[in-house]
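Work Package 3 (structural annotation) set out to generate three-dimensional models for the target panel prioritized at the project kickoff. During this period the team completed the workflow that converts sequence records into discrete structure tokens, so that structures can be stored uniformly alongside our sequence database. As a representative example, we reproduce one entry of 536 residues exactly as it appears in the project archive.
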Amino acid sequence: MELSDRGLSLLKKGQKGLFYAIFSRVGIMIVLLLLQAAFLFLMLYRFAQFLPHLFGGTVVFTVFMVLYLINSRIDPTAKITWLIVIMLLPVFGALLFWYTQSEIGHRAVQGRLEQLIGQTKEKIGQDEATWEALEQADPEEAALARYVRRSGCFPVYSHTDVTYFPSGEAKFAAMLPQLKAAKRFIFMEYFIIEEGLMWGKILEILAEKVREGVEVRVMYDGTCEFSTLPFNYPKKMKELGIQCKMFAPVTPFLSTHYNYRDHRKILVIDGHTAFTGGVNLADEYINQRERFGHWKDTAIMLKGEAVRSFTLLFLQMWNITEKEAVFDPYLNASEKGALSAPHSDVPQKIVKGDGGFVLPFGDCPLDGDKVGERIYMDILNRAVRYVHIMSPYLILDGEMETALKFAAEKGIEVKLILPGIPDKPMPYALAKGHYRALLDSGVEIYEYTPGFVHAKVFVSDDCRAVVGTINLDYRSLYHHFECASYLYRTACIPQIEADFEETLAKCRRVTPETVKNEKWTVKLKGFVLKAVAPLL
């Protein structure tokens, strides 16, 4: 363990990155996975000589699969993708379809999650006074809250203060004093953790808090093992007294569970303070490391009753691999004084609630309920004046594209801010594949010229907003565990809109002419990839 001006470090030089991954456990896992894939292809190749004799049977089989897909409940855009795959490669395509739909690898997780959600369905009751106030303020908002409540234990709250952070640097600066003030427990759930200045400073505080008797739990997605942290990192954390685990670590067996990643970003402190948003725990998120120009991100801090929902979301994910699930001591933290006045030594910059409502929610890919997408679409459908959006990716299904276009065609000002410098070439090309159709309907598209936009923000009509982890792509809307907060009439919403306008001033506008002049290679890539977008 090393301590420097960049904070605490558990890794020695060379213990992370692609080189280390190749010559470590990850490398072995990848080799085993590739061997399994090669075996499947070999079996297909071995019996390829019989395929011409089975041509008639293949035609019948293809027709059956097409009819099956048409009558299935799969998303219409995904149906088109699978129809193309199966018509081009009937046998292999059907096997691949069966494999992805068979739920191999995540049935146990799905069953455990359903059990945990069932156990906690009534853990957080809905305050009747808050509900009545929301119904009186706007029955349509109450209807949305009723839908969200249906998908899990997600009450709507009124006694919660919300602070909006227009950058990762601002969130990081607020996190540190809040962590230092922790007295009982700290829960952290992040998609990416990487050693550097940001994580080093946080880890230094966590280690100190453990010595003071604070319970600290950290969970991160298993994909970190590929590039940022070694497999034994939880063991290194345990040596500091920190409980740590990976969600869905890499295993040597092919599994559809790899498709479902924990993309959430949650920090809960003592049950009274929570952070969420797009900011992971790595240096590029606070612009200490430049990868794709300036990194634009957003986050929020909640203080008050709504924190209970983020506590529950964390505990549900944490307890997937635990034999005994414990919730009550943490969910009832507010009843034990955790919601008392903030410590005098902690700098406070809180936007006080003025009768607004906060609705934290999670989105689970295993329940078939697309909560994140439906909330976004509800905002688009009910907007009166404008909907302003920041998203790093734009890989839309037919329903979301229609909602964006329909809102613009009704005369609603729909503006999208997307990255000017991409982090991945394929999503960048796919996003541009949607440009012309959106522009034709009146949607305004802007690209952030200083660099990469990683923010996930919807703001509408100066009265409603969503800040969280949910991108406008298939990964977030269909395949990832996500979270966010829906805000209605909270005092910070004007700040969110002001941040959007400030970011817009740094963008170039996309026009039919710029789309026409785009590189032909990008156009071709987007044209081809759009057919298989749901599989990416």
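The longest strand covers residues 215-221.
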